[in-house]
Design goal:
Layout lengths: L1 H11 L21 E3 H12 L8 H9 L17 H4 L1 E5 L8 H4 L8 H19 L11 E12 L10 E10 L3 E12 L2 E15 L17 H22 L9 H13 L17 E3 L5 E6 L13 H20 L4 E10 L8 E12 L2 E11 L6 E12 L6 E3 L3 H15 L16
Parallel strand pairs: 1-2, 7-13
Antiparallel strand pairs: 2-4, 3-6, 3-9, 4-5, 5-6, 8-10, 9-12, 10-11, 11-12
Length: 439
Amino acid sequence: MRRAALRLCALSKGLLIPGRGLTQGSQDPGKHGIFHIHEVRDKLREIVGASTNWRDHVRAMEERKLLHSFLAKSQEELPPRRMKDSYIEVLLPLGSEPELREKYLTVQNTVRFGRILEDLDSLGVLVCYMHTKNDSSKMSPLSIVTALVDKIDMCKKSLSPEQDIKFSGHVSWVGKSSMEVKMQMFQLHGDEFWPVLDATFVMVARDSENKGPAFVNPLIPESMEEEELFKQGELNKGRRIAFSSTSLLKMAPSAEERTTIHEMFLSTLDPKTISFQSRVLPPNAVWMENTKLKSLEICHPQERNIFNRIFGGFLMRKAYELAWATACSFGGSRPFVVAVDDIMFQKPVDVGSLLFLSSQVCFTQNNYIQVRVHSEVASLQKKEHMTTNVFHFTFMSEKEVPLVYPKTYGESMLYLDGQRHFSSMSVPVSLRKDYRVEP
């Protein structure tokens, strides 16, 4: 029964499941072809010719300009690839190499989810370089970056810092310059790896100077299962376009949503006065404006990616940790991450920037907490701020949490947006004692 439930967890997210297709969840971790987690970033640096020395980054970027002539003029010039061409596995040996543990360890002896986000981001980029690999050139002329974290769903399994973890991933859909990457994470239990996380990222290929789009190899499905994965990628693209077109920044709320907001407003009016200005909180409720937390990060060279911008995984980790602290402070107990979705990387973050993060609870239901994190940067030379990311995290508390109430129209739109993201969650997760992922 336990095995069937976990296999269903993988299948329900549209991934190739253990024992079928590409993903081999119970393979021997010592098998040839599995990368060590430390090898991933080294491999990426090798592929793009990046230096580990910050002083050499200008020279390395100048050398990449010479690769521009290797870019394809059209997608038809590029040989098609299969899903198994990009399939890779990465081992995070927390159990067999205890010296790795401290980086991933929480004080509660669980695994830091923020570190997992960093590893997923690096894995997604490497998967795409495997798909676009050109044997005639040692260095890739492509600059592949994360465009969107479409969805990350947690399964009902504990993440122990004393058991090995394995990641797997492959390209599941391709456009002209974009690629959808499906990834899974497994943890060793006994002598077998069990699925604990499913993720879908969208990556984009840009030219060697990271200034414009570049073509990527087409993808050819080879089986019915791969056809379904590719079809799901098309559906995901359509869903994202539809979701964007109905954004509350573009369109008014639906009639049902307007009714929801009006009823919430009426429930906060003081019955002792006949005034729209006199507001009181209903029992077991909190004003949304009182749920905020903020942080500031100085973007040092240590956190740069292979293209000498700030690593997207670092941005996700910092946003997640602030969101977790917000949910913890709001709910009064340690929260558990359930889902991450719709993280759009709108602008790159330069080394030396000041990164401002603002986190806020925007929707609650029973013991669920929906947290939104807004990220913006300010350069040291300019005083203007620019939005780089908006992050959406769904947490579950051990106990029922207060309702959150908006005061202003802007907060009402945040509430509805949070409700939409919460409603898009695949399947509500049931809290189990062995299910705990912390920052």
